[in-house]
Write a structure and sequence with these properties.
330 residues, mainly alpha, two-stranded parallel sheet, 12 helices, 52% helix, binds adenosine-5'-triphosphate, binds L-tryptophanamide
Length: 330
């Protein structure tokens, strides 16, 4: 039997090569023929930090357009907005009661993001966000959750919650999910500081999917590289070159070893040019597909159909949970 797959991205900031390689490209690999893949836009999660309404709206539309441009097929996959399936909020509220303050305070993403804020203005939603994320996953009985490395801890919290609740009520209320992190590309680094993750909230050194090709090429050509001259994968001593090799191999669909072989005896400059060529060809292709999707006007229909498919399963789960924990249902 095929596994149930679920994942999502929050519509904050612009999508970058990290979001594509670490997340979206894997969603495409995992999509199945038989209505067992759920890929959504975590728009409620986008509210965990202040965001301009117009920006949120546009990011959401863009994210759907890029999902489709990258090859997600709405015939096979339920593509939907988290805020259009009320079961997410409902299960999130229920799950809050089973999560512990201690474990939530240990979430590294919460620690990193709250450290950048004034202590008095840290939203409760930022703190409880991994609980809502657990609801996102458990609602669909997802077994496999493809994500980048930074989300692994959240999926593990989801596992803990599912096991805790199943044990408390002595029944299999929830399917326990497994995070799936790709071997290569689960942590694309910033081009300006290859010791930091490429990230929407710290966009220095990002290549955005919407970048003008000339600008993208410039960013690659001026990417920080390392001492020495050999094009070799060595994360410790050559983080910049290793990151570029990762980007190159993921976009070309080859292994790191195969990529290294292509650049034996070549200088960094030649190597960077080859990376820039591959990145620009990729951007040109996805941007033209993105434009076609926007012009086709299909986004609202995709989201409407997706929400219907998703609600069917999600509502069943909420009913099952309510019954199991003693909430009155008729
Ligand atoms: P933020 O900076 O706001 O935390 P982000 O850039 O990390 O945002 P998310 O929306 O949190 O992006 O992530 C979307 C998906 O892309 C997640 O599965 C995440 O693990 C993955 N992802 C994000 N950044 C990278 C990266 N640099 N390399 C690989 N995967 C990434
Ligand atoms: N937290 C994720 C988005 C997300 C998600 C999920 C991913 C929300 N709910 C459920 C996988 C499964 C992020 O991209 N920052």
């Amino acid at each position: 039997m095929e596994h149930i797959i679920l994942s999502g991205i929050k519509p904050t900031g612009q999508l970058h090569l990290g979001s594509y390689i670490g997340a979206i490209s894997n969603f495409i690999k995992y999509q199945k023929e038989d209505d067992k893949t759920f890929i959504f836009i975590a728009d409620l999660h986008a509210l965990t930090l202040p965001i301009d309404p117009k920006e949120l709206y546009e990011n959401t539309r863009d994210l759907v357009a890029f999902y489709l441009a990258a090859g997600l097929d709405p015939e096979k996959v339920a593509i939907f907005l988290q805020s259009q399936v009320p079961a997410h909020s409902e299960l999130g509220i229920i799950l809050n009661n089973y999560a512990y303050m201690g474990e939530m305070s240990r979430m590294t993403q919460f620690k990193d993001k709250s450290a950048k804020l004034n202590e008095k203005s840290i939203g409760l939603g930022l703190f409880t966000y991994p609980v809502l994320m657990a609801a996102d996953i458990l609602l669909y009985n997802a077994e496999i959750v493809p994500v980048g490395e930074d989300q692994k801890q959240h999926v593990e919290l989801c596992r803990d919650l599912a096991i805790r609740i199943n044990n408390r009520y002595k029944q299999e209320i929830f399917v326990v999910p497994t995070p799936v992190i790709a071997k290569t590309g689960a942590r694309i680094m910033s081009l300006s500081d290859p010791t930091k993750k490429m990230s929407k909230s710290d966009p220095k050194g990002d290549i955005f999917l919407k970048d003008d090709l000339k600008i993208a090429r410039k960013k690659i050509m001026s990417a920080v590289t390392d001492l020495g001259s050999e094009v070799k994968y060595d994360k410790e001593n050559k983080p910049g070159i290793s990151n570029l090799l990762t980007i190159y191999s993921c976009l070309k669909g080859i292994t790191i070893e195969e990529a290294e072989k292509e650049f034996v005896n070549q200088r960094y400059g030649e190597f960077k040019k080859a990376v820039a060529d591959v990145v620009c060809a990729f951007l040109e292709d996805i941007q033209s597909k993105y434009t076609k999707v926007i012009e086709s006007g299909i986004i609202d229909k995709v989201l409407h159909d997706g929400a219907l498919k998703a609600s069917k399963i999600a509502d069943e789960t909420v009913e099952r949970v309510k019954k199991a924990i003693g909430l009155y249902s008729f």
